[in-house]
Amino acid sequence: MTEAAAPLEAAAPYESAAPHATPATGPLDRTGAVSLLARCDELAAYSTLPGGLIRRVYLTDEHRAVNALAAKWMLEAGMRTWQDAAGNQCGRLEGRTPGLPALLLGSHLDTVPAAGRYDGILGVLIAIATVDRIHSSGIDLPFALEVVAFGDEEGTRFGRALLGSRALAGTFDPDWLDLVDEQGITLRDAYTAFGLDPTLETPAPDAVTDASAPTGLAAAARRPDDLVGYLEAHIEQGPYLEEAGHALGIVSSIAGARRFAITVTGQAGHSGTPFDRRHDALAGAAEIVSLIESTARGAGLIATVGHLDVFPNAVNVIPGRVELSLDLRAEFDDDRDRVWQQLGDAMAAVAARRGLTVESRQTHSAPAVACSPRLRAAIETGIRSTGQTDPMLLLSRAGHDGMAVADVTDFAMLFIRCRGGVSHHPDEHVLAEDVAAATDAFEAAVRALVAAHPA
Ligand code: GLV
Ligand code: MN
Ligand code: MN
Questions:
Q1: pTM
Q2: What pLDDT does residue 70 have?
Q3: Is residue 154 lining ligand 1, measured as CB closer than 6 Å?
Q4: Residue 107 sits in a domain of what CATH number?
């Protein structure tokens, strides 16, 4: 994890990403992988941060621009394209007859602040490349293939993750329309400014894949009968494939997550105030951060405090209020919920001892979700087809669109080794050889589902 701790710096331009450009090494389509990685670099240019850092969030000009680029690549791959009612960019290759249920392939195009260039993006591009190959091969498809480039998986702008995939799954909560971004813009207004209709009406039965259909947000929702499943390729965002020397792995399930906004309130005051008269919100918050780490670690799950605002944030004023975020994840929801209870008690004890108050509000909750055995088997077949024996089964501690899509159809995921397990950082890195293998495996997984599908 030393690389994860490195200071943030601008993402290097593609020319300096030399590992992508070394000679071909075998039967895999390394040239195709290098082109695919060049597309990741092209998308990385759409950012609201200066100096080559990447930050691209939901319902912005950058979102619109990457959707247009993805749509162009989808068209070139033989797909009909449209942007759905939630701003997800979609493309569709019909099966042997028009209108068949679709196997969804995809990932997301939005990013965290100071992001890498592969989290989500690589999965969208592997999905497009897979459809391109299948289209070119002229194979008889018993179902349609659709690529979905989700608009919001990270939740960076509105603090609530999976907005794009929740809309697709039909589980979008109308209350979320009142969420606000850092500028105070509501999600409702952001949809309108993006040219989308934020009303949540029941769509007409044939509205889901037609750009001219009713525009309400509910029109993004897909029906289970129209879907065969959802497959996603994604960088591992963990160290285990690299440690084991494996390029690819199979995801078993995605950890359940809950996020909270925690406010610690004390008493602001002069920095000359004696210690025994202080109610220092930051000293209390620091204790709470440390407690969160030790409690989660002791319980074998993970927790992150990634955001902290200190008020008034002045060198000679005792902090009167601190707002912090908590992201809590576990393989099993019961463990996660039990640890949150314990933390609630522990935070209250800190507050009582220091004369502070602690309030918390849940901002996100997603249950742990298991991948479908049927689709997992297809991913395994895909990995084995690349010559990799005994693929590892990995729990994903990172969240993914599949968590939301699982409400409407089965899903499974292919993991790709990433250097040092580093993600959500400009140093995110994948090998072209691994991307070549992943694209081959993903295509083979789709073909395995084609072969297994009733005629
Ligand atoms: C998304 O990457 C998440 O796990 O929060
Ligand atoms: Mn991410
Ligand atoms: Mn992701």
A1: 0.86
A2: 98
A3: yes
A4: 3.40.630.10
